[in-house]
Amino acid sequence: MSDSPGAERRRRRWVTLPEMVAVLGLVIGALTLGLNWSEKRDAAQEKAAASAAAGAAKVRLSLDADLARGGKEIRLSDARHELIDTAVDFPAALRIERQTPATARIDKVWFDRAVLAATDGGADEREGRLPVLVTARYMVGDTPREGHAVVEIIWRTQGRLVGGRSLEIEAVRVRETGGDRKRIDALWTAEMKRQSARA
């Protein structure tokens, strides 16, 4: 017995609906798979970027500066690296030779007279900032590297009954990583303008 034309159309409709559900399921599955793959790829990229940043941080100079010997000396260190040697450059206007100490330090006697001479002629009691450039050679594993940092020495002068003025180091900080002689010269020029305005 053959089906009527209406029954045949209904049967086709019932056959088509499950197929549409199956296709819809495949589409949803493909979208889910694509999203999961995209999230894993993004997570892998983030992990690679974080690893690269951590690697760069391990290689970069991370200089610290602390007062020692009752404020007569500044000790330089890097918690991540062994410092092989250091060199300290002062602003050209002070006419101080480059210092290459046997230990990583900055000694007050290297610069106190030059700063007192540069700030002479005004008030006895002053305070200011002296920028110096530290060049350090250090080890990353078995590889020697070189880095620079601008260290800012905060100083204060005061008058004495005999012998003019004296200079004391109030504090010290690493102002910035990197830098060069031009940078410390520019910072010192700005400091001298500030001193002249206050005199």
Reported for the largest beta sheet, the result is: 4 strands, antiparallel
Strand content: 25-35%
Number of helices: 3
Shape verdict? elongated
Describe the model.
This protein is α+β, with helices and mostly antiparallel strands and 199 residues long. It folds into two domains: 1-59; 61-198. 40% of the residues lie in helices and 34% in strands. It has three helices and seven strands; from the N terminus they run αββββαβββα. The model has no long low-confidence stretch (mean pLDDT 84).
Summarize the structure.
This protein has helices at 5-59, 112-118, 181-198, and strands at residues 63-68, 73-78, 82-89, 105-107, 126-140, 143-159, 165-177.
Please write out the topology.
Layout: H1 5-59, E1 63-68, E2 73-78, E3 82-89, E4 105-107, H2 112-118, E5 126-140, E6 143-159, E7 165-177, H3 181-198
Antiparallel strand pairs: 1-2, 2-4, 3-5, 5-6, 6-7
How would you describe this structure in keywords?
three-stranded antiparallel sheet; alpha+beta; four-stranded antiparallel sheet; 199 residues
